[in-house]
Amino acid sequence: MSTEYIPTIGIEVHAQLETKAKMFCPCSTHYGDQPNSHVCPVCMGMPGSLPRVNRQAVILGLIAARAMRCTIPQTAQFSRKHYFYPDLPKGYQITMYQYPIGTDGVFELLNEQDKIDAGIEIERVHLEEDSGKLIHDAQHGSLIDFNRAGIPLLEIVTKPVLKSSRDTVRYLKELKRTLRFLGISDVNMEEGSFRCEVNISVHLSDTEEFGTKVEVKNLNSFRAVERSIDYEIKRQIGDLKKGIPIQHETRGWDEKEEKTVHQRYKEGAADYRYFPEPDLPDLLIDGEVLDESAFDLEDIPVRRVRALIGRFGVSSYGADLLMSGTGSPEDNPYFIADFFVEAVHTHGAQGTQTANLMIGPIFEYLKKTRKSLDQTELTPKKLAQVVKMVAKDELSSASARMVIDVILEWGGGVMDVVKREGLSEVTDEDELTKLVKQVIEENQQVVEQIRKGKVNAIGALVGVAMKKSGGQANPKLVNEKFQELLLK
Ligand SMILES: [Zn+2]
């Protein structure tokens, strides 16, 4: 029998949807306001109040389910999930149980070769409402803020298919980017709008059956996810080797001690006494909501990144930066990437050079001035023009940066800036010949040495010519001209 253990990991993500109103009432979802200022009889669970489904939440949920290529049912259904805790005023949570809005999906990821791999299998995507928030205060004891109660949540559950903490974090990062780019959630981990729970089990490599799974909560950063998975795998293998069985439990991550700690033993589904929510009709997913949640799958971030790398020759590091979403107008996270694609695709600039200018001087300028790209006069067309001049040796790389900096700060057309700053390189054949011939005439001693075989001395003549041209000659062409006139 093998003694090697294999870990199996599944992830549940809860993301608050970017809607203005709560899931079942018109209260605001705005974060950070005075506690209990966004409440009403519905989200406070008052008897006799009736929930009403927020249409926008359904649309956003469907966009997420479709981005994960889930099967979308014709009808979804809300259920009541009962548990008793002070943050849940009704004594039950309204959530989708038997009939979620998406099942059996695949979430695409790029592998280390920058190719889209088989992806992560998604078990289900469903909608539910958030609970209130308990605040434990030394002076006042435990307080409850119900502003969060009823905020629309999207739950995304993977199948138990992940094998390491590294894969898990890779999945979570891409998921976070996808939800943000598609306008589904602001995915702010600090404000709790993107929360994850990890299910971890280990089993012997020669058995098919999964081990008992342990759920880990309170994971507020990717680092916490990574560390808690690694810790838990080690703990479970250690216990099993000592003959201690694994308990089906919920554990929390203790950031300070860097370990997981027992919180409670896990309820089974029966303990929640699920039943269909009698105050809400079944949710018909018909033509209209399907139309409104339709989008081009090529617009999911992972496919855009792949296109930047594969079609436009950008490095994966560069593609991630172009997709970092430092954006505008109107907070369009694709704004920078679109700007790049327009320069390259529409105006014919070379991809790698354009990307280098964007993630180099342009990003530096935007960061320094806290401006967005649309607040400057740089356009994709101007950027393309600069890149093309460099390619034709009409502008050095250093001059290109300077032209870009001037346009970002002061505006103006590319040629105006090049002329005004005296940056254009002399590439005119006649002018170059004249310059080089003059240098040859004035430096006969060096020329003789070169003709006798001391070819390296050409470097000295190139230096003289460059100085004479005030730095505006193209050194490569000057060098070639010397070779042509002296060595052939
Ligand atoms: Zn309300």
Write out key terms for the chains shown.
488 residues; alpha+beta; Arc Repressor Mutant, subunit A; 3 domains; eight-stranded mixed β-sheet; 15 helices; binds zinc ion
What does this molecule look like?
The protein has 488 residues and is of the alpha+beta class. The protein has 3 domains: 284 residues, no CATH class; 125 residues, no CATH class; 59 residues, Arc Repressor Mutant, subunit A. 38% of the residues lie in helices and 19% in strands. It has 15 helices and 15 strands. The strands form 4 sheets. The protein has an 8-stranded mixed β-sheet, covered by helices on one side. It has a 3-stranded antiparallel β-sheet with strand order 4-3-14, with no helix packed on it. Strands 2-15 form a two-stranded antiparallel sheet. Strand 11, helix 3 and strand 12 form a beta-alpha-beta unit. Helix 6 packs across helix 8, helix 8 crosses helix 10 and helix 12 crosses helix 14. It is elongated and about 100 Å long. The mean pLDDT is 91. Zinc ion binds next to loops.
Cα(first) to Cα(last) distance is 78 Å
Class by alpha and beta content: alpha+beta
Low-confidence stretches: none
CA radius of gyration is: 31 Å
Number of helical segments? 15
Query: How do the helices and strands follow one another from N- to C-terminus?
Result: EHEEEEEEEEHEEHEEEEHHHHHHHHHHHH
Bound ligands: zinc ion
Strand content: 15-25%
What's the β-strand tally?
15
Average pLDDT reading: 91
Count of individual domains: 3
Strand order, biggest sheet?
A: 5-6-9-1-10-11-12-13
The helix content is 25-40%
Shape: elongated
Largest sheet, if any? 8 strands, mixed
